[in-house]
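Pipeline run #58 for the internal structure catalog. This entry was flagged by the ingest filter as a single-chain record with no existing model, so it goes straight to prediction. Upstream metadata was stripped on purpose; only the residue string is passed forward. Reviewer on rotation: M.T. Logging verbosity set to normal.
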Amino acid sequence: MPEDTQQDEPAGRTNLTEGPTELTTTKPLWPWKLLLAVILIGMAAGIWGAVNRIDYTWRWNRVPQYFFYESEESITIPFDGRVEQIRSEGRMAVLTLVSETGDKKEARVEADTLRVEEGEELFEGDALGFVHEWRFGPLTTGLWTTLWLSGCASALALVIGLLTGLARISRNYTLRGLAALYVEFIRGTPLLVQIFIAYFFVGTVFNLSRNVAGIGALAIFAGAYVAEIVRAGIQSIPKGQMEAARSLGMNAFQAMAYIILPQAFKRILPPLAGQFISLIKDSSLVSVIAITDLTKSGREIITSTFATFEIWLTVAAMYLVVTSLMSQLVFYMERRLAVSD
């Protein structure tokens, strides 16, 4: 028998002797990238043209002070008395004050703002000097309020949604009925109305602060949507997973906690993240009950400065930055979970 001299084809080479082969071609991306650039440039030009038609004086230079600003605090003497001694400590001047009854107290002011001299007699409330320090502006404090409100509401909504989602698939008719009523009522009424009910009715009856009422309303609202996400995620896992876990000796709680929920979490992560991102934007509605979040801070600034467009665009950009960072975090988690499969 002659030796079989046929050898394997090198990787990547097409074997032309074995009939037609399917050729795969990669379409170039540069035309689509060029089209995208043209569309974006056209949109930017359209917005620029529309802005130029508006009879409005833009004052972007006034916006940074609402993030951080340097405050000037007047330091006054708290009693009738005199300045016994003034000593220097770097750029600060330390004043030793003596009251008419002999009590002593020290005060610190910036040396270049000193208004008094040693031995000078003063009355209560007289200015000694000033202290300058950097402080957070209303936009920064409003953003912080938005973040911690949303964070607390998201954590509470996750707990409510998980318990309600489990109740939705429970064999107990009462639990299923209560969970269904909760989900349908919350999803069928506006969030703004729920905030009003939580603050003006529930908050009045139970003497709740506006922050507690706002967090509660946001958490209950988001919890209904999280419940449906959790229910759908659990039901997407094949029933054989639960049966296999029970056959290994696990009870229902152990099977759900260690087998079903970890698998469901990977599937529900994107919609769950989308719900929490929406909650950050929905939190702007708590401004109607006088919680000074980012939106209310923006409105207060506009009231005093009339810089309508600059402030609203800045507020929108701040929301966009927060939600974009959260989206990137979720995308990173998705990739890590995909690697662990």
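catalog note: The chain has two domains: 65-136, 138-339.
catalog note: The CA atoms of residues 9 and 35 lie 41 Å apart.
status: ready for reviewer M.T.
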